[in-house]
Design brief:
Blueprint: E1 2-10, H1 14-23, E2 29-32, E3 49-50, H2 59-69, H3 76-95, E4 102-104, E5 110-112, E6 114-115, E7 125-126, H4 132-144, E8 150-153, E9 157-163, E10 168-175, E11 180-191, H5 212-220, E12 224-225, E13 230-237, H6 249-253, E14 257-259, H7 279-293, E15 298-301, H8 307-313, H9 315-323, E16 333-342, E17 345-347, E18 359-361, E19 366-367, H10 379-401, H11 425-442, H12 449-472, H13 477-498, H14 516-519, E20 524-525
Parallel strand pairs: 1-2, 1-11, 2-8, 11-18, 17-19
Antiparallel strand pairs: 3-7, 4-5, 6-7, 9-10, 10-11, 12-17, 12-20, 13-16, 14-15, 15-16
């Protein structure tokens, strides 16, 4: 089956939905998503969306906070665009029906409620209780479904981009229910496939976060940048009944205190901001304390806040913890770090353009340069809407200049006949867990050259096996995702090996210092053809 569209969007998080909604003004859109239309990292974003709205805040302060958190590796132009265009995009979300939480000031005037999170010098986090991502997706999906020229392909998975190493012409997409591979020929393609969290054994990400966009782009010849910077969220619920449930950064922003099992505090020993230190500092501090004491977890204490405030501000976290026997109004929350967010991805300019013509990337799949070596909390949702807007505007120009389908390189049908051998799904699952274990053990919060070398050997062996299985085996989502995970893992390891310093999220005991003279630049990898 082959279809022609003006715009192909891969992914249905805030980046993909925002782009699709705006790009629909320029033509027919196909939106492909692996799960339902609201399953994405956005949907799991608890904390909020950062933007300058308060009178005591300023663009300069937000820019400075972003650069400090990013280890001064952030792209200056991208950060300024993010911060200065952010308030307008926030107003657009409100106009689309996003219901941000509100509160009354001492004079009884109602205004948008603002939270504070680690690394922020002011309260600037707009939120919707502790389910901000879900609320934004709800509003976007509602608006998307009103557009007759947007067709959503749920429960489909992209296999590879259609590319000649210079230009992208669309993608091959598998319908797992029928085994049919669609050739979707597009004038413009947007990669908004989300994160890479499931390359690690423990992650806050949903199961669909398997780095598909980064892997496909690399295979197609696009430039990939800064994959060594994997953010580990410091506060993930430690309980067998709620594996990797995220405890929002906003809990610390509202006064949450990190404690050891004996009740003592420790963050004051690691950073002047204590419990409000940037995520990479907090994650490393917890990792160090666990290794020092042999404990399995540390604790987050908000019992000093009133039960009413806790339940009103964090209803989802309260109910989730309560479901596993933890009353956060009375009990400390047991927490450990887990893989959370990728600051690298497909390298783009400030209009979302990748190094391949007619291919855009946005959201966590992209490296816009905003995050540098470490993401400032709640900048990710803002990045998605700001750069999705810019990409949609740029794509509109490309579509207006498009000549004809006949001028494109011919898009051959996918050679499905080559994939005939039955796949051992148990082996695929076994290789996936092996890969995740290797990455967790050797390429985690704290790294060494020896660990990275060991990881590369294991990862490349798994990647070679996955590629061999893919060449001849029957296509399944599990095999496609293993292939992508292994490719992304290799990119992470190679990038970490290239960065001979400890900056932001790349902490290497063999290179403990920051080296501005040699290393203050992006780590860029391009597939050799």
């Amino acid at each position: 089956m082959s279809i022609d569209v003006d715009v192909l969007v891969l992914g249905s998080g805030i980046a993909g939905l925002s782009f699709a909604l705006k790009a629909s003004a320029h033509g027919k859109v196909a939106l492909v998503t692996k799960k339902s239309d609201t399953e994405s990292n956005t949907n799991y974003a608890q904390g909020g969306i950062a933007s300058v709205t308060a009178q005591d805040d300023s663009f300069d302060l937000h820019i400075h906070d972003t650069n400090v958190a990013g280890g001064w590796l952030c792209h200056k132009d991208a950060v300024e665009i993010l911060v200065k265009e952010g308030p307008k995009r926030i107003r657009e979300l409100i106009d689309l029906g996003v219901r941000f939480s509100k509160e009354k000031d001492p004079n009884g005037k109602v205004h948008l409620a603002l939270g504070r999170e680690g690394g922020h010098s002011r309260r600037r986090i707009l939120y919707s209780a502790d389910l901000t991502g879900r609320e934004i997706e709800r509003a976007l999906v509602s608006n998307i479904k009103q557009k007759e020229n947007i067709r959503i392909f749920e429960h489909h998975i992209a296999i590879d981009l259609i590319s000649d190493e210079k230009t992208c012409y669309g993608a091959y997409v598998l319908d797992p229910d029928t085994g049919e591979v669609m050739t979707i020929h597009a004038k413009v393609t947007m990669l908004a496939t989300g994160g890479v969290g499931h390359v690690y054994l423990y992650t806050t990400n949903p199961l669909i976060a398997t780095g598909d966009g980064v892997a496909m782009s690399y295979r197609a010849g696009a430039r990939i940048a800064n994959m060594e910077f994997i953010q580990f969220h410091p506060t993930t619920l430690y309980h067998p009944g709620a594996r990797s449930f995220l405890i929002s950064e906003a809990v610390r922003g509202e006064g949450g205190i990190l404690r050891l099992s004996d009740g003592s505090t420790f963050m004051e020993n690691y950073h002047e901001q204590g419990c409000l230190a940037p995520r990479d500092v907090v994650a490393r501090a917890i990792d160090a304390e666990l290794k020092k004491n042999g404990d399995e977890c540390v604790y987050l204490d908000i019992t000093h806040l009133s039960p009413e405030k806790i339940k009103a501000r964090f209803p989802n976290i309260y109910e989730k913890c309560k479901s596993v026997g933890i009353d956060i109004t009375k009990d400390w929350i047991p927490i450990v770090p887990a893989a959370h967010y990728s600051c690298g991805g497909v390298l783009t300019d400030v209009d979302g353009r990748t190094s391949l013509d007619r291919l855009y990337a946005c959201g966590e799949a992209a490296c816009t340069g905003v995050h540098g070596a470490n993401r400032l909390a709640s900048n990710s949702l803002l990045e998605a809407v700001v750069f999705a807007h810019r990409a949609a505007e740029d794509a509109g120009k490309v579509l207006s200049e498009y000549k004809s389908w006949a001028s494109d390189q011919e898009c051959p049908e996918y050679a499905i006949g080559n994939h005939t051998e039955p796949i051992d799904l148990e082996l695929v699952k076994e290789l996936t867990v092996k890969l995740q274990t290797v990455m967790w053990k050797y390429v985690g919060i704290v790294r060494t050259d020896e660990r990275l070398a060991k990881a590369l050997t294991h990862v490349q062996s798994i990647l070679n096996t996955a590629e061999d299985m893919y060449k001849h085996g029957q296509l399944t989502p599990e095999l496609i995702e293993l292939r992508n995970l292994a490719q992304v893992a290799e990119l992470i390891v190679l990038s970490a090996m290239e960065r001979k310093e400890s900056r932001g999220l790349n902490y290497n005991l063999d290179h403990p210092d920051i080296d501005d003279k040699l290393c203050k630049k992006d780590t860029v990898i391009v597939k050799p053809f």
